[in-house]
C-alpha cells in the first residue's frame, strides 16, 4: 500500500524525479537530495511502512534482500573503502520521511 503523502512513494510511482542508481522488484536506491557525505544513497523498499517494529516475515525478507544487495551497490557508487548504514527510527532519531529507508554513506572517511 502506498501512502499519498509520502515523498518516497511518489518517487517509487515516478511522480517526482530522483537520481536512481538501482532498482529491482523489491527496492529502489537513489541519491539523497541533501547529501551528508560524498556518497549518500537511500535504499527504499517498494512497500510503504515506517518502522522496524512493523516488520512482518515478508518485510523482513525484503530487508534481508536489501542488505544483501547493498555491498555491490555501494561499491559501484564510489564506496571503495567502506560505508555506513543508518536507519532513523521515529522522532528522536529525526526521521523525516515515514517510509523505512537505509542511508548508505561513504566515499570519504566519515567523521564519528
Ligand atoms: P530521514 O531523516 O532518515 O527520514 O531521511 C530522509 C532523507 O530523505 C533525508 O536525508 C533527505 O535529504 C532525503 N530526501 C527527502 N526528500 C528527498 C527527495 N525528493 N529525493 C531524495 N532524497 C530526499
Ligand atoms: Zn511511502
Give an overview of the whole structure:
The chain has one domain: HIT-like (HIT family, subunit A, 2-Layer Sandwich), CATH 3.30.428.10. It is globular, with a radius of gyration of 13 Å. Strand 1 and strand 2 (27-31) form a beta hairpin. It has a five-stranded antiparallel sheet, covered by helices on one side. The protein is 23% helix and 22% strand. It has 112 residues and is an alpha+beta fold. It has helices at 7-12, 57-76; strands at 20-23, 27-31, 39-45, 83-86, 102-106. The protein binds adenosine monophosphate (AMP) and zinc ion. Adenosine monophosphate (AMP) binds next to loops.
What's the topology here?
Layout: H1 7-12, E1 20-23, E2 27-31, E3 39-45, H2 57-76, E4 83-86, E5 102-106
Antiparallel strand pairs: 1-2, 2-3, 3-5, 4-5
Bound molecules: adenosine monophosphate and zinc ion.
Features:
single chain; 112 residues; alpha+beta; HIT family, subunit A; five-stranded antiparallel β-sheet; 2 helices; 5 strands; 23% helix; globular; binds adenosine monophosphate; binds zinc ion
Broad structural category: alpha+beta
Number of strands: 5
Count of structural domains: 1
Bound molecules: adenosine monophosphate, zinc ion
How would you summarize what this structure contains?
The longest helix is centred in the middle third of the chain and has 20 residues, at 57-76. The chain has helices at residues 7-12, 57-76; strands spanning 20-23, 27-31, 39-45, 83-86, 102-106. The protein is built from two helices and five strands.
